[in-house]
Amino acid sequence: MTTESTTNTPTATADSDSRATMLRWITAAGGLATFASTFLAWTYTDAFPGDLTVYGYPAGLQVLTLIPALLTTLFALSALGIKGLGWLAPTGHRKPTLLFALAAAGTAWFTVIAIAIELGGLVNLEPGGYVAAAASALPVASAYLLPEDTRKAAAPKAIPSWAEILIIVGAFATGLIVATYGIDTNDNEPEVFIGYLITVGFGATALIKSGLMLRLSAITAKNRQITLISAFVAAAAFPFTQNTDQYTLVAVNILIFATVALGLNVVVGLAGLLDLGYVAFLGVGAYTAALVSGSTASVFDVQFPFWASVLLGAAVSLIFGVVIGAPTLRLRGDYLAIVTLGFGEIFRIAMGNLDGVSGPKITNGPNGIPNIPDLEFFGYNFGQSHVIFGIELGAYANYYLLMLLVMIVVVLVFARAGNSRIGRAWVAIREDETAATAMGINGFRVKLIAFALGATLAGLAGTVQAHVQHTVVPEMYQFAGPVPPNSAFLLAAVILGGMGTISGPLLGATLLFMIPAKLQFLQDYQLLGFGIALILLMRFRPEGLIPNRRAKLEYHEESADQAPQDPATATARAGA
After folding, report:
1. pTM higher than 0.85 for the full model?
2. 3-state per-residue secondary structure call for 129-159
C-alpha cells in the first residue's frame, strides 16, 4: 500500500499541475477576449451614458472593463511563469487574478443589465455587449477553480534607488489619474460612477492581495522625503487637469470634509472620546470668519485680513472646546456622547435664534450670514482666475490649493501629536483609562488637550469653508443631514477609513462625500446605505479600510486567542 501511494503521488501532482496550467490559460484567454470586446459597440444608441456605439474606440464603462480585463490576463500569464511578469504577484496569483476578473465581469454585466433596464430590453444590445458578458464570465469561473497558492512570498530583489523613485512617482501619478477620473464623472451619469466604484473596489483589493501594495509601502517608507514630495505634487497637480471649476469645487469640499475628519480622528481615533457634536466646532470657525471678513450682513463693521480671521476662528474654536470639554470630559462612553450631541444641537439652535427677535442680533438667525467676500492675500484675489504656468486656474482652484496647504498643516499636527508623549498618553487613555490613570497619567488634562486640539483643527477648516461657500447658515451644521459635512458623516468617515491613522479618515471622507454627490438618486436612502455599510464593515473589517498597524496586530492576536485550538497548540501557548 505504501508503494502504491508513493507511485500515485507524483501522478496526482502532475495531473493537478496540468489542470492548474490549463485553467490559467483559460483565464488569460478570457481576459483577452473581454479586453477585445471593449473595442466593439455595446449598444446602437447614444441614449445610454457614455458613447458605447463606436467600434474600435472604448469609452465610459468600456474603459472601466478594459483595464481589469487586461490586468486579469497579465496576472494569469504571470502565474504561468512568463518571463518579466513574475513581479506582479509577490504573495500569490489566485486571489488577485480572481478579483481582477470579478472587476471586469462586474462592470460588464452591470453595463449590460443597465442598458436592458434603461433602454427597454436586451434588444438594445449590440453583439459587443453579448460578447463582453460571455467573455467576462469565463475568467471568473476558471480563476475560481484555480488551486490556492501554496508557495511562500519570495524575498524582494534589491532595485536601484532611481528605480524606486520612478516607482513612487508612477504610483502617485496613477493615483492622481484614478482620483481625477472619479471626480470628473458626470453627476447626471451615475452609471459610469457605479462602474468606477466596482472597478476601483475590486482592483484595489486585488493589488493588496497580490502583495504589490506591501512592496510599495516598503519602498515609500525607505524613501520618505521623495514620497512626501510626490504626494504633494500629485495633489497640487489636480486643478491643472481641470477645464472648468465644476469638479474643482467637489475637490475643495472633499478637502474640507477630510480635514475636519482628521481633526475628529484626534478625539475619537487617538483619545477614544466619542464626540457626536464635532461639526459644531466647524461652525464656530465658519461663523467667526464670516463675522469679521467684511460681509455686508455682518453686525460687525470690520474686515480682518485672512491670516487674522484664520487665527481668530481657530482661537474661538479652541475656547469653545475648552469651555465645553472642561465640565463634560469627566464623563465616559455613552454619557459623553450624549452631552456632545447636545452641544452640537445647542450650537445650531443658538445660531438660529441670534436674529434680533429670539435673542441678540448677531448671526441673522436662520438666514445666516451671506455675501462673504472672497479671500485676498497680499493682493492675490482668490475669487478671480489666474494664469499659472500658462494654464488658467479658476476661483475654486485657488481655494483648492489653499485648502491643500491647510490639510498639510493638519496632517503635520496630527502626526507630531500622535507620536509625542501626549499622543502616547491618548492611546493609553483610549485602551484603558483606569490603568492609564493608575500609571500616573492625568486623564482629564490629557483628554481636554485632545478635545481642544480637535476643536482648533475643525475651526481652522471652518474659516476657509465660509469663504468657499460665501455664506453660512445654521442648517449646515447638523448632526445628520443629506449633505456632508455633519457629525454623523464625520464619525462614519473616521470609522470607515480607520481610526488612529492619517490616510484612513482621508479615504473615508473622500468616499462619503463623493458617493452622495455622484449618486444623487439615492439621496433619500443615504443614511440607510451608510448604516448597512458600517454594519458590514464592523462584521468583516472592524479595523477600517486602512487599519492602524498596532490595532490590527492586537485584533489578530485576540482573534487567535479566541479561535478553537487543538490540545497540543493550547498547551504550547499556555507554556509560552
Report:
1. no
2. HHHHHHHHHHHHHHHHCCCCCCCCCCCCCCC
